[in-house]
Amino acid sequence: MANVFSSGLDYRIADDLDDVVAAWHLVYQRYLLAGLIDPNEQELHATTHAIQEQSLVAIGSINGAIASTLTIMPDGPRGLPLDSVYRSEIDDLRAEGRKLLEVGLLADRREEIKRYINSLMCMFMYPWFFARYTGSDIICGVHPHHAEFYEKAFGFVQYGPARAYPKVKDHPVTLLRLDIEGSLVTERLPRATKIYIENPLPECAFDHHFNLADPSVAESRIGAYLRGLA
After folding, report:
1. Each residue of 98-150: pLDDT tens digit?
2. Per residue in 45-94, pLDDT tens?
């Protein structure tokens, strides 16, 4: 994929189990450092909601090492991670017939904020186009201090008030929603949106993603980690 934000990374969708394990290990490292989670034996951080065939793990790597990641989780029988704090708001969208996907498990190993922001904007091309191709709205939970960035960069709007989020040790989270088609008819397009339109990601970019419902997942470190959550 073209490196349109000059982040220095190569981006793709994870296509094997090792990629996913490495991505969620990076999430573990960064969340642990930030005081969002407690240590665990498997040194992974993920969610049962991601264990489905249509989930996608986007990764940015340099010299073969994963430096940045996010996970795309379509709504399904398990619901979405943010249901635990925004069930009413999310159910309202479902009642309107909106298809939903949640973006979460974001992490970057670099300390420099500019590199992280550039990487996030580049990686977000994957959920943006996946949502557009599937006719879905994107929801995500961010720290209230970061909401303005998501609004200006991607066109998100706040859809729920700040609340304590038990999954990250009761740190505050704000629910954001992005209606892709609605964001395209605004008078001034968000910065990332303009670049996405000029650098379209083909639908085939999602064809060879690793199937997180594969039986090998249950037998891996991921399976051991998820059993520990039960």
Report:
1. 999 999 999 999 876 677 788 889 999 999 999 999 999 999 999 999 999 99
2. 999 999 999 999 999 999 889 999 999 999 999 999 999 999 999 999 99
For residue 140, what are its two tokens? 């995500």
The token pair at 209 is: 């993603």
Question: d(Cα 168, Cα 165) in Å, to the nearest integer?
Answer: 6
Structural domains of the chain, with CATH: 10-229 (3.40.630.30)
Closest CA to 23 of 48, 51, 57: 57
- DSSP labels, 202-214: PGGGGTT---TTS
Rounded CA separation 34/207 (Å): 34
Helix ranges, the chain (H): 17-33, 83-95, 113-123, 125-134, 147-154, 180-183, 191-198, 215-218, 221-229
* Greatest pairwise CA separation for the chain in angstroms: 50
User: For residue 45, which of 195, 182, 168 has the smallest C-alpha distance?
Assistant: 168
Q: How far is 28 from 38, CA to CA, in rounded Å?
A: 9
DSSP state of 124: T
Burial 43-82 (b: 16+ CB within 10 A, else e): ebbbbebbbbebbbbbbbbeeeebbbbbbbbbbeeebbbb
